[in-house]
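Posting here for the record, re: magnesium ion.
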Amino acid sequence: MQVIGIDIGFGFTKATDGKRYRVFKSIYGEAVELQYQEALLGNNEGVEHLQIDIDGAGYFVGDLAERQSSSRQFTLEQNQFVASSSKVLALAAMSCFLQERQQGVHLVVGLPIGHYRQYKAELAGLLRATHDIVVTNAMGERKEIRVAVSDVRVIPQPIGSVMDRLLDNNGRPAEQRFALEKIGVIDVGFRTTDYTISDKTRYSERGSMTTQNGIAKAFSTIAAKLKENCGINIELYRLFEAVETGNIKIRGKGYDLKKITQHAFQQLAQNIAADANRIWTDDWDIDSIMITGGGGAVLATHLQPLLEGVIVPMEQDLDYRLHNVRGYYKFGNHAWPIARTPNQAVAGAAVVQK
Ligand SMILES: Nc1ncnc2c1ncn2[C@@H]1O[C@H](COP(=O)(O)OP(=O)(O)OP(=O)(O)O)[C@@H](O)[C@H]1O
Ligand SMILES: [Mg+2]
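Prediction output follows.
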């Protein structure tokens, strides 16, 4: 049995087999014949080449699609997300961990809060199958893979971060408080922010919501300012590095982004906190609040003073974008235990419905 956790976000797809992590942009496009190896000098090591054939169609995925595919799909079309994009992204993520023939793969996949109820059965049905895929590496070598996915669990994305704190790598409860408390989770992503409540690990529909207040909102403000100053439309997903360093070079000229970034982040944090305080008005008995997601890392210092409640400090041992997916992996080991005595079960395995 192999457990793989996959978190398909609108910004990034994150996956782990418990030993390794893969993160790539949630973008794919038609595979084209590459005339030249990309790096003209030096080696290709560390440069991601994710190319996969599914049902006879070839795809570039992640950075490779961004650089080389002429027609690209982003997963931002929410309605088509499950039907079209999730299968390509999930199989691409899985392919990173697979042997040529792999039986008994068990998947735990997260869906955004807003999609959970409507799509969980469809997504599980789509993935629970035997898939024949072909993976092509940067040297053009093709490898055929047959993967039998025997079981799939779908959980609301932010619950992964609670599972990550509650369970150890073998899926056994490590920090009981996360099984006993009522925890509000704010998951700030690229496109969306998800709010949810884990009440003794039970998912509460009432305290859950998705808004469009992702980091992309702040990036749009920054991009609009740049457009004003230099007339260029910068694609939002290209801003992450510039925002990190505080500078961007456009046509050779440097622009300082620090002030506008601070302003945009503060504004976004205010909106996110106001939503949290409003959605959870009736849930005044929340014990603590967790901030997670890649955007959570960026906004935590702005958000904390604005939230009403006790904040659980996030563990700093891992990129914030990966806490959900590490939780999925741990949950998989909990849901499909190799050998487990009954009293080690977590109260709320109910979080996940088949
Ligand atoms: N190393 C990094 N590289 C890129 N972005 C990062 C990094 N670390 C943090 N971030 C931030 O993480 C955000 C994406 O977070 P995350 O992967 O949780 O979003 P997502 O789950 O794809 O989006 P959504 O929740 O809207 O579906 C980016 O917008 C960026 O601000
Ligand atoms: Mg996310």
